[in-house]
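Reminder: ligand-aware prediction takes two inputs, not one.
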Amino acid sequence: MNLLDGKKVRDEVLEDLKQKIAENNLAIKLAIILVGNNEASKIYIRNKEKACKNVGIEVEKHLLDEKTREEDLIDLINKLNEDASVTGIILQSPVPTHIDFDKCSGLIKASKDVDGFTEENIYNLYLGNDTIMPCTVKGIIRLLEYYDIPLEGANVVIVGRGNIVGHPLSLALINKNATVTVAHSKTKDLSNVTKNADILISATGVAHLITLDMVKPGAVVVDVGVSRIDGHIVGDVDFDNVKDVASWITPNPGGVGPMTVAMIIDNLFMMKWRDKNG
Ligand code: NAP
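Here is what comes back for the chain with NAP:
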């Protein structure tokens, strides 16, 4: 078993970006909007802020009251869209229930859409065009490529078809010439499907869904899921047992999570580079 070490790759990616940002004297600014007091969101924002500051990216936080009206949030997004000093914008999910997250995040200008979820960016992913990719999807692919895991022709099984990970990941991997199967909660005989995978990627949030008997010996296993048991973060994969048959496996935490943060920085760099050089 070999580890797909997300922290190591994140550190290398960020060091490289830090140098490029300094060498090219790039003034990059990320605007993060949080509506309300979700504790997990505050931790995610702190991690993003820390990564940005470490590579020389400015962060402008907009912490809005729980009761903020949707139209006021939209005004702020429009203002940030027009502000030439702002490189990218993140609307942190979740938002309070009186606000339509998809509608509001969809108003972020595609060229400032760090998370890669606006219609234009997702449509470009669908078409196989060069685009701003959702950060977790990009992070998984970058991690596999770093360790020279061949994607072309590989049988990839993705468990989970969510809009944040599973669904866009299936498009990205088809673009890489993988043969992609997407399983979900209605899939019959899940283990029969997962056992065909050369690369098995689980993104469900169901703790320890993927057990030893569901993995082909020698498979590459990527665990995206995040759930909590007794306050501890656990993934979708029963790591302690699956590691004995996998050729490569992500730790969780320490695999996909750090790569997601690194790709936020990578997307911001790419946006600024395009803005400057066309
Ligand atoms: P989501 O939208 O809730 O999707 C979950 C998917 O899992 C759905 O497609 C669902 O099937 C499927 N599923 C649920 N139970 C299942 C079962 N027993 N067997 C097979 N499939 C099952 O979630 P998401 O936003 O895509 O995120 C997925 C996970 O990744 C979450 O745990 C999230 O916290 C984590 N995540 C991690 C990172 C990171 O950086 N590490 C980033 C983003 C997300 P149906 O469609 O049939 O309901």
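The pocket of NAP is lined by residues 136, 159-166, 183-187, 190, 203-206, 209, 224-227, 256-257, 260 (CB under 6 Å). Residues 101 and 213 are 39 Å apart (CA to CA). We will return to this case in the review session.
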